Amino acid sequence: MSYTPDSRVLGFSFMVARRVDADEFDAFRRLALASISVYLDLVRLEDAPVADISSSYLGSVTQVQLTRDVATLTGDEISLLIGLILDAFGDDLVTDRSEDLGEEELMVQEEFIANLLADLKETTQEKRLIGFREEGRVMVFNRPA
Questions:
Q1: Residue 144 phi/psi, 5° resolution?
Q2: pTM of the model
Q3: Region label for 59, one of left (φ > 0), alpha (ψ between -120 and 50) or beta (otherwise)
Q4: What are phi and psi of 17, to 5 degrees?
Q5: Residue 106 region, left (φ>0) first, then alpha (ψ -120 to 50), else beta?
Q6: Largest CB tally within 10 Å, which of 22, 106, 119, 128?
Q7: Tens digits of per-residue pLDDT, 54-101?
Q8: 3-state secondary structure of 124
Q9: What's the gap between Cα 100 and its chain centre?
């Protein structure tokens, strides 16, 4: 995860442990963007969000990047995007194998994400942030410009 204050865009990166061909990626991209659109219609968000999905190769690994403006992003939409990534790439995703998190730990993570989004929406953040998940914890750091 990364945050760029100039454009107020939050970026998510996912690693797929294989080369995803162009047709498969395009199908995923169309589904994900359509899903975002339907979700935004359901929550009656009228402002057109900034959303993009791209990919790049790092050797035999595919990096899938999702970018979304912070102003209209919600925790539920993040859950939707993660669910779509899991459905599309499943066992090929490079993940932190802390899948056995208890219900309380999951609630703490959801609350952390909600608080982070609220903070990014309500304040003028001048620092670039980067975050990643390690051993079941989300780590967020300031990133030099």
A1: -60, 145
A2: 0.70
A3: left
A4: -80, 40
A5: alpha
A6: 128
A7: 999 999 999 999 998 887 788 888 888 888 998 999 889 987 655 555
A8: coil
A9: 21
Tokens for 135?
């051993």
Exposed e or buried b per residue across 57-72, where buried means at least 16 C-beta atoms within 10 angstroms of its C-beta: eeeeebebebbbebeb
Q: What is the pLDDT of residues 11-63, one digit of tens each?
A: 888 999 999 999 999 999 999 999 988 888 888 776 667 789 999 999 999 99
Helix segments in the chain, DSSP class H: 22-42, 75-89, 103-122
Cβ neighbors of 7 (< 8 A, separation 6 or more) are 50, 69
Q: What pLDDT does residue 84 have?
A: 93
**Residue with structure tokens 């899991």?**
86
CB atoms within 10 A of CB 14: 19
How far, in Å, CA of 131 to CA of 39, rounded?
A: 25
Give the type of residue at 89: F
Beta pairing partners, 69: 9
- What whole-number distance in Å separates Cα of residue 53 and Cα of residue 41? 19
